[in-house]
Amino acid sequence: MKNYITLFFICAIGVSCTKNDDENYREPTPTKSGNFLQDLHVGDKLYYSMLVGENYFEQGEDQFNYTGDTLELEVLELSALGAVISQRITAGSQMRSNPDFYYWQRDSVYTNTWNIVDDSLFVESDALYSATHLLGTTRLKFSDYSEQNVQLTGWRTTYGYSESNAQLFTTNYTLFDQYYDSLSVYIHNQPMSYDANGTTTVFSKAHGIVRSSEYGWWTQSGYGWDRIW
Q1: Which residues pair with 201 in a beta bridge?
Q2: pTM recorded for the entire structure
């Protein structure tokens, strides 16, 4: 888990939801196997747009803005051990030229091995400690979450504020014109009960990570990454 969030002094410059012009870019084909890792190829790149949000505590008042920063995930290797995927902030991102503070080093490149074992996704870092731009957790279960059907509104969900964990789901969700029939929503807010950060991850075995966010108890503000298809 990252340290208390201090990056929220970032000035949101505007919406940036376009991929970098990259002649080597290959848009992944829609999932066919029901396992997003099996549908990836070496060289595939996935993109996420960064958001900064406020008022996590107040449902319906959770405002957010896209910052103009883009996260690129690239498949480097595929083997029986899983998919080796790098994570980097693209060269055209706002943080590259913005003097304001960001939590990460602007040129950080994290490499992780993603693997699905039984019914869980494991993301193992090649560093001593877990290092990732995208995720606040290293394991996600793909079991059908049936605790409550929620909607994604603003940068959070319609689930009431809680400092405990919740396994939820959402249906008929559209993000950047991409439609998702059903997604799991894992809220990991138990750390907020002792003033640490909470996280929310929206995902499925078929589509992978669609949205991730992290937020602090003290500021009730946070950041996240939304998948650009």
Answers
A1: 186, 212
A2: 0.83
Structure tokens at 108: 């950080």
Identity of residue 139: R
Burial of 214 (0-12, 13-18, 19+ CB in 10 A): buried
Alpha carbons 59 and 7: distance in angstroms, whole number: 22
Give the integer Cα–Cα distance in Å for 48 and 105: 17
Q: DSSP state, 102? A: -
| pLDDT tens, residue by residue, 172-212 | 999 999 999 999 999 999 999 998 899 999 999 999 999 99
Distances 124 to 69, 83, 166, 221 between C-alpha atoms, Å:
24, 10, 23, 27
CA angle 112, 107, 214 (to 5 degrees): 60
Radius of gyration of the chain (CA): 17
Closest to 85 (Cα-Cα) out of 34, 47, 120: 47
Q: Which residues of 59-79 are buried (b: 16+ CB within 10 A; e: fewer)?
A: eeebebbbbbbbbbbbbeebe
Going from N- to C-terminal start, the domains of the chain cover: 7-14+34-228
